[in-house]
Amino acid sequence: MLVEPDLYQRIKTYVGSVNEQIRDSRRQLIGYLLERDHEWMDKSKNLNVTQKIPALRGIKETKRSNVEKAGRSTVLSGKKDKPAHGKSENLLHMIAANGEPQLLEELLEDTDINAVNSSNKTLLHVAAEQELLSTIQLLICKGARLDLQDDVGHTALHTAASRGHTEIIRVLMKAGAPIHTLDSQGKTPIHLAAENEHLDSIKILVKEEAKQSESHTQDTFLHKAVMEDNCKLAELLLQNGAAVDAINNHKKTALFYAVKRNNDKMVKMLLNAGAKVDRDAINEAINLHEVTILQLLLGESLQIVLKYEAEAFQLILMLFTANAREVLSQEALGSALLSTLLEQGLDPNITGAKGQTPVHLAAQCNRPDLMGLLLEAGAQVTLTAFPQHLITIPLTKANPNATDNEKKTALHLAALAGKVGMVTSLLSHKAKGGVRDMDGSTPLHYAAAGGHAGVVSALLQSLNNKGIQDRNAWRKTPLHTAAEKGHDNVVVQLLEAGAKINTTDQSKDTPLHCAARGGHQEVVKRLVNWGQAGQKRQGNQMNLQATNNVGKTALQLAESEDTPEHENTAALLKRKMFLIK
């Protein structure tokens, strides 16, 4: 309101003559506005007075429509209360800013308490900004909404926290002000307090969070700080009493997210603050192959890994597997960590889902240093998954006859892989050459089926040709397995070692049946010519007329297929049987 100088003086004289005991709020308001007008007049002398006088009357007369009662979101919403562009509302904001609670209370009777100015600030925002405690209390009593946000998404609590107005913060929170509301930059009130290092404000916000049940169904301040890699905020929170082991609605602690984000600085900070290491954090470090972080975690809670076999094996797998190249490059760290685990009671023979042991993993990764540690701790060599890597394994302290979940020993799989050196080494360390797996097969069965003549020779020499007639679950001998795969050189070795040529399996197939069915012409030729005049082992001759359990001869099996190999095999048999020339 602006008036001419003469009129201003007359009104001021009138107000001054009013009985001071009456103290009517309207008269106080007139005096207040006149004083404000006097200040404005110097800046706006040329303004039209007739356009300004109605503003005084408008203060009491202005009535706004009812404000929606629905709650606002905890993030900045596009929905705003109607800005207070009228002069009466602007005056209310000025009165609130200047700390006139009695005058403000009188004026609020017919005015919307949640009216906003051009910056979408409410009276509560203005009072919080100016640290007007009594005004804040008045507005709260009158029903001011605590969740309304201004143009930058700040609630009154944001405003108070950014300025370190601790008592205002306390009053607002006691009235139920939301503490996790995000502004337009994704910041909560505690972010703003931390940015300005208002430690007392941080402390009471942390204390309030601990009280509120909602904190257990969402991320805490500490969770948010960790997820933002905000070490400064996390440190301030921890220094001011934040619960380091609080969990969110996913049952995860802040430590889990620090591990997940591979933030070793944050992990150290949380551990130093007393964070408990749980299975989730350890598993996350294992899955991410983060050795440095894992070492930090294990230094605090190694027994967690040792308690749970699955985690322990995954840890070993992480340390040794070939796809963890970054881990394997840290050889000294890997050795130190394994030594620590073994010293603390890790079972060196712990197995994975497929029967692998740490020995297999160390062998796969070509880590003789780790292999030595495992063997010294009593690891057994079973070779379930990676036999090709075990040729140089020291076996002096290993049990060469230990079996995996398929009853296979190291010798079985070394024979299967055709590793002559490994077979020889295992046999020299008292590995049993005639041991059977769950299918009844011996290492000789596997070597014969694979056509590994060198391994067959080593096994026959070790066994002194014993076990040559051993049968597996299908009653097949090593000669059967060599014949059905077409390994002529192995067939010769076995026959020379004394294998019986007409032995039948479960289907009453002879080795000749097996070779004819596969169209292996050279093996068929070898078998039908064996034992004839001029051949070794004369008398151990093939019975060409032998039939299996469905009445088929080897010739009939060869004729049942129409490949060139089968046709040539059938022709060979017919000539031997004098059916054709």
From TrEMBL:
The keyword Repeat applies. GO terms for biological process: innate immune response; protein K6-linked ubiquitination. GO terms for molecular function: ubiquitin-protein transferase activity. It holds the Pfam family Ank_2. Keywords: ANK repeat, Repeat. SMART domains: ANK (SM00248). InterPro entries: Ankyrin_rpt, Ankyrin_rpt-contain_sf. The keyword Disulfide bond does not apply. Gene3D superfamilies: Ankyrin repeat-containing domain. Residues 63-86 are annotated as: Disordered. ANK repeats lie at residues 119-151, 152-184, 185-217, 217-249, 250-278, 354-386, 406-438, 439-471, 474-506, 507-531. GO terms for cellular component: BRCA1-A complex; BRCA1-BARD1 complex. Transmembrane segments: none annotated. This is CARD- and ANK-containing Inflammasome Adaptor Protein. It comes from Stegastes partitus.
